[in-house]
Amino acid sequence: MSTAPNFTMATPAPPNANLAAATSTLNKSKEYVLSVLAKGKPWAEMFDKNAVSKPANLGEAVTRMRKNSSYFKLNYVAIILCTTILSFLMHPGSLIVLALILASWAFAFLAYPGTVEINGKSFSEREKIVAMSVLSFVLIFFVTSVGTVFFSAISISLALIALHGAFREPDNLFLDDGEAQSPINPFSFLPIPISTPAVATNV
What is the pTM of this model? Predict the structure, then answer.
């Protein structure tokens, strides 16, 4: 006769502690996002109608996109964020699923920060992260439409960014030669230093 598996979890943290931890995390995330976006260039400069022209050829379009992406990178991040948020607001079902997934992460790691035992076998925090990551990946990309909505938002964002980068003349931007020629690091706005591969030059 089979028996149901026994689940043993650490004593959940007090509700006030959980609420305080969640609130602190949300506030820090909000402050960080706002501080990053505040460092972007003025939107009036980004959408200067006097600096809009059709590129002469594909090479010029690529050069413009490279320079504009270096100068307006934080503005482009804001466009991606706004497009993603609007896409999920237009698909409330996917938004609810995403909220439930985030809530499950909060429950697993804020309500029960300790180890989990199933039939006498202990699972560490790292193993919990792996299990939750796999479960979230399956739900997002194979069970629900969250992945489709997300990739649609990213595709629309990249199309808008490419269109702006190709038609916005970068000649009047204060972009020095070193910054223009350096490889673009899309993570340069993050506090964690992430290096980009060096570009070999012929002497």
Answer: 0.68
